[in-house]
Design a protein that fits this description.
There is one protein chain. The protein is mostly helical. The protein is built from 8 helices and no strands. The protein has helices at 3-17, 32-48, 55-64, 72-81, 83-91, 96-118, 121-129, 133-145. Helix 4 (72-81) packs across helix 6 (96-118).
């Protein structure tokens, strides 16, 4: 399983467990152009078929996990450490930091919308109230752009 897919699964768990406001991606604002760049970079990364993390790298990441979630800083570091990944991200007009923050923000917004669809109005309102203004703006943007913007 790629690090990106693991990150998606972990973020899904953390979103359902409750808001985690306070991380850098919680205050990162997405734009339609940025979402397009992230999605294009993700497609190129998938095609590149990058090698999986080594067992040693996995154990190192495990040291930093909080409530099962890999912090965005570790995700960014993993992109920076892999020359091919860094090159692909840069080719799409993103720095590794911007790519990481935007990826996490897009995942959060997409997962929120998926969870919102399953939750009742009262629960959705409680979840929304715990989010930062930036997260709420990202959710509104992904909702407006529709399925094409949602993180797959």
């Amino acid at each position: 399983m790629t690090i990106l897919r693991k990150t998606i699964a972990i973020l899904s768990f953390s979103l359902c467990a409750g808001a985690h406001a306070g991380t850098p991606d919680d205050h990162f604002v997405l734009s339609p152009a940025l979402i397009q760049k992230v999605k294009a970079a993700n497609a190129a990364l998938e095609k590149a078929d990058l090698p999986e993390q080594t067992e040693e790298e996995e154990k190192e990441d495990d040291k930093y996990r909080k409530n099962g979630e890999l912090p965005v800083e570790r995700f960014i570091l993993s992109v920076e450490k892999r020359p091919v990944a860094r090159s692909i991200v840069t080719k799409h007009g993103l720095s590794p930091k911007e790519y990481g923050l935007a990826s996490y923000a897009l995942i959060d917004a997409s997962l929120y919308l998926a969870h919102e669809a399953m939750a009742g109005k009262a629960e959705a309102a409680k979840m929304q109230a715990r989010l930062t203004r930036e997260q709420q703006a990202n959710i509104a943007l992904v909702r407006k752009l529709g399925p094409v913007a949602a993180f797959k």
